[in-house]
Design brief:
Radius of gyration: 18 Å
Helix content: 55-70%
Low-confidence stretches: 3-15
Number of strands: 0
Distance between the termini: 34 Å
Number of domains: 1
Order of helices and strands: HHHHHHHHHH
Oligomer: single chain
Shape: globular
Amino acid sequence: MEVNNTRTWTSDTISIGALDANAIKVIAIIAMIVDHTAIWLVAKGTTLDIVIHTFGRLAAPIMCYLIAEGYHYTSNLKKYKKRLFVFAIISHFPFVLFLGLEWWQGTSVIWSLLMGLVALGISKREDIPLALKITLVSVCCLLAYNADWNYIAVLWVLFFGIFRGNFKMQMTSYATIGTVFYIIPGIVSMGFDSIFRFGIFLVIPLLALYNGERGKKSKLIQWTFYVFYPAHLIILYLFRHVIFG
């Protein structure tokens, strides 16, 4: 995720400025590790399972937010998309292997993030009519339908980018999308077992602490998340199905 070291805040923006992009990226990584490990080690439906998956809801929204920030600051959007595409392909088989899916049954959140980036780029094009923009963004949502966090991630990236600089509108659109497309369907289909989905709201106070700065600039840090995502799935797969299988 590409994030520059400056940010302009409007009067509607709420920020205490305690965390830079590297810090919230680390939080996302920890949340992801814990969440995915719990799939294997923690009995489903237990209190511990609910608590862990509630914390795990931090990961995807943070990634979506950083993708939107990266769009604003990247000097080469084509290269940014290409990098996400490559790691979406690399991450596909570790994802389906770990979750025990057939190769065609789903793919990782990296693909959803890529579609979100593409949708955001489309929305910013001044040479595309509004009706065509809506159509193309809808296509991005459809292309992400079978991916982890599917069109929800696409819409989050899109609206984080559209309302960038207006924290209140970013969080309002984020909460609305999450409630309508994630929490309510969960309640309808799973009842109380979906309570962990409310964990997406934990992201709001966390992002309020974001100061808009990248933090320490390093190629190692820049590539950590891209490499980490497929790597941690492979490691968890080996532990779950090979070493302790």
